[in-house]
Design brief:
Structural class: alpha/beta
Number of helices: 13
Shape: elongated
Order of helices and strands: HEHHHHHHEHEEEHHEEHEHEEH
Mean pLDDT: 90
Strand order of the largest sheet: 3-2-1-8-9-10
Length: 272
């Protein structure tokens, strides 16, 4: 406990002195909003193999050969996002903006930082709440959580049928995946094997290279090239604060859950 208090006090001092801060977030920050993580015990990739469920090629093969299995996966994957709401850690990140320039660089595709009110959010892996044309990645549609839930409900109904067909699966997914007047459209997300999206990746690099402090929270540090961002910030002279209940990293490791530590850190750095 004393070690945590000392780490929070030192991290708060660094934040108070910083003009520009990057918050680099991963799946762990949204776990407290009910969205499962990917690499922890019982996470997504333990339950759903990456080669089948983490690539466009694998997903398309499942849609063709095992549409029911894909529908069940999509219900499991999308429902938590459709039902999620920002938690205290998202709101604490938003509150930092009252005191310094904050850029959120997130690996998450759930839109919760934006919903919480953060004004500079760089989604380096895209967003499930955005549909784009594949040919040039221009936006076709923005989805509300209610609209995403409606898609999930249709997929759930499909799972209740005996043997859902490929055609019925495509009809259920039509709001987010299909062919239109500009060609193929799909959710604006980065899967394994995809290139990082631009200009988001360039914006992320610029942000970490010009900040005084980077706060990593809820990230395993195992997904590249995103995992290189804290080290890139350090190379440019930034201090690195890491918030995680288990994995030590950074110049200062604050051991604890994001929803507890981040509000505490903000209150300590800028007391009312």
């Amino acid at each position: 406990m004393q070690e945590t208090e000392q780490a929070v006090a030192e991290a708060a001092r660094l934040l108070r002195q910083a003009r520009s801060v990057v918050v680099f977030s991963g799946a762990g920050i949204s776990a407290e909003s009910g969205i499962p993580t990917f690499r922890d015990s019982g996470g997504w990739w333990e339950r759903f193999p990456v080669e089948q469920f983490g690539t466009w090629t694998g997903l398309l093969a499942l849609a063709r050969d095992r549409p029911r299995e894909l529908a069940e996966y999509l219900v499991t994957r999308l429902r938590p996002v459709a039902e999620a709401r920002p938690n205290p850690s998202h709101r604490a990140v938003r509150d930092m903006e009252r005191f310094c320039r904050v850029t959120v660089v997130t690996q998450n595709i759930d839109g919760l930082h934006t919903e919480a009110g953060s004004s500079r959010v760089v989604e380096i892996h895209g967003s499930l709440l955005r549909v784009v044309w594949v040919v040039d990645r221009t936006v076709k549609a923005h989805l509300s959580r209610q609209e995403l839930k409606a898609i999930v409900d249709k997929l759930g109904e499909l799972c209740q049928t005996g043997r859902p067909s490929f055609r019925r699966l495509l009809l259920a997914l039509q709001p987010i995946f299909g062919v239109g007047w500009r060609g193929l459209y799909r959710p604006d997300v980065v899967l394994f094997g995809d290139a990082m999206v631009e200009p988001e990746w360039t914006h992320a690099l610029h942000a970490v290279r010009s900040c005084q402090v980077i706060v990593s929270v809820g990230t395993s540090g195992q997904v590249f090239p995103a995992a290189m961002l804290p080290m890139e910030a350090k190379r440019q002279g930034a201090a690195w604060i890491h918030v995680d209940p288990q994995e030590p990293a950074g110049d200062i490791w604050i051991k604890g859950r994001a929803g507890e530590i981040l509000p505490l850190l903000v209150n300590k750095a800028w007391p009312a």
